[in-house]
Please model this.
Amino acid sequence: MIQTSLRRGASIGLALMACAVPARAQEGQSAAVDPRFASPDLPAPNVYRTGGGRPGPQYWQQRVDYDIQVALDPATATVTGSETITYTNRSPDTLRYLWVQLDQNLFAPGSQGAQTFPQQGRFGGSEAGGGYTISRVVSGGRDLDRRIDGTQMRIELVEPLAPAGSTTLAIDWSFVVPETGADRMGHDGDHWLLAQWYPRLAVYDDVEGWNTMPYLGQGEFYLEYGDFDVALTVPAGYLVGATGSLENPDEVLTPEQRRRLDEAAAGQIVHVVAETELSDPTAIRPATTGTLTWRFRAENVRDFAWAASRRFVWDATSADDVLIHALYRPEARAWQEAAAMTRHSIEFYSGYLGEYPYPTATAIEGPVFGMEYPMVVFVAPEAGREELFDVLDHEWGHMWFPMVVGSDERRYAWMDEGVNTFINELSKRGYFPESTPELLNVAQYVMAIRTYREQPIGTLPDEFEGDLALGIGAYVKPAVMLNALRAIAGEEAFDAALASYYETWSFRHPQPADFFRLMQDELGMELGWFWHGWIETTATSDVAILGVDQDQAGDRWIVTVSVDQRGELLMPARVEAIADGGASATVTIPVQAFYGSDRATATVSLPARAQRITVNAGPEWGDVNPQNNTWTR
Model:
C-alpha cells in the first residue's frame, strides 16, 4: 500500500594514494561504553532459521487451499459466499483448533478498529450492517464449535490435527460491502473492489505460533500460501478482473474479446473493451440479463482479490509470458497509459530482483488510493501520469514484497513498504529518466521528521500515531536506510544481496532477524550498529567536515581531513578530495574509528592541492545536514 501524504546521480578522476588514520580522541562518550554500537536483540539461530538468515534444515510453514463460490448482489450491496478450506499441518505440533481471520468485522458497528482509528479517517469504515454473518462452519458433516472475537474466529477441531495431517472445513458467510473499506476495498455506485472478502486462515508459524493480532485498519496482512479456485457470480452486464487466470473465457467473453486478448499476448497494447463500446452492452457481453459466473484459478498465492463493474474500459498487453490487464472507468484519463506502466514495472522488478512468478497482472482503477493483492492492484484515478506511475509502480513492487516474500505486515510494515519504496525510485528513473524521483529524497525525510514526531521504524503499524507517522516510519525512512546501506556496501554488492534475499525467502515467511542476518552474510559486513541505529531509534546521521590541513611533500600534497559525527546515528565517513586539475582520491573511515569518540581523521595524497572535499555527499547517505558535508578552498 502507498501513503497518500508522503509520496511525491561528477566523474571521479584517477585515484592515487589513500589511507584512514582515526583520531581516537576521548571527547564526549567513553571508549568503554558507546550505546551507538548496540545491536538488535535477535533470537538465537535454530533448526528452523539459521545464523546466516536462511531457512534451516527443518524450516516449515503451513499450507491452505481454498475453493470458493461467491455472488455479488449490487441491489443490496451484499456478497454471499461458501468456501471449502483444506488446511495442511506441516508443523511439528498437534493442533486442536484453528484461528480464522474475519477482516470484514472491522466494519461492524463498535469494532475494535472503530475504537482505535477515527471513522472519518483513512482507516475508518464502521457502518450500520457491516461485518460478517457466519451461517455455517462444518467439517465431515459435523458443525464445529466456534468463538468470534472481533476480527478473529477460533474453530474447535473434532479431532486433533497431527503433524503432516490435513483437515477440510466449510464456511458459509455473507456481508454488506462497505462504501469505504479502510482504503483497501469498497464500492462507488456500480463499481466494486472486493478484498478481505472471505474468511482467511491465520498464520501458524515457528516464531509466534498462532498469529492472532486483530485487524484494526492501519496494519496490513500476514497470510499462508496455497491454491485458489474461485467462482464469481455477478450480473451479466459486468466485467470482472481478479487474481489468477480466467478458466472459462468462452462463457464470459465474446469471440472478439478473446481474439483481442490473443493479440495482447503477443505484446501489443490492445483495447479489449474500448470506451466507445460501453454504450452498447450487447456488443461487449455475451449476455446482458441474468448473471454470469467467472471462474479463476491462482496457484501458490497468499490471497485473492477481485473487482466488477459495468463501466470498465479494458486494455491489455504482455511482458514475456505475463498477460497484463488495465481496467478503468473512461473518465480516468491518465489510466490510458496504465497498461504500459504496468508492463514497465513487471519488467523492471523482474530484472532487478527476480522473475515475476505469476501468469497475469491486473491493474484496476477505483475508490482505493493504492492497495496490492496477488496479481491485482487497486489504484485511484489520479490526475497526472507521474502521480499514477508512482502509485501503480509502488503497488506492483508489492508483488515481490510481500506477495512472494511473505513477511508479516501486521507487525513489520517496513519489511514490505520500506523495501518496496526504496526500489520504486530505481524503477521510476527508468520510466521517467528526466524526472527527479521524490520517494527517497532525504530533504523530504528531514522536513517530515522536523514537522512531525518521529517513531522508530520497528514500531508496530497499529501503534504509529496516524497516517503521517506510519508514512515516515514504514515507508520513507526505511527507504532512506536502504539507500544508505547501498552507499556503504556499493551498488553491485547491495543489489546482489537484496536479490539473494528475494530468492531465498520467496513463498516463505522471513522475520526481521532473517533479513538482517542474510544481508550481513551476503555483504560480509557486521551491521549490528546499523540495524540498531536505523530500526530501533529515531537518531539521525549528521557527519560534518571539521577542518582540513594540507602540506606539500615533494611533488605530492598530503591532505588531512577532520570529521565529526554530530548525529547520534553512526555512519562511516566516505571522504573524497578533488585536486586542482581534477585528480581525486577517496577514503572511507569505518564506524569503528568513532567508538568512544565523535571525531576521526582521514589522510589522502594528491598530485596538487585539494580544491574541494566532501564527506558522505549526496542524498543516498541519508545525512540530515548536507550543508556541512562540503569544504572548498
The chain has a mean pLDDT of 92. The CA atoms of residues 416 and 500 lie 16 Å apart. The first strand starts at residue 17 and ends at 21.
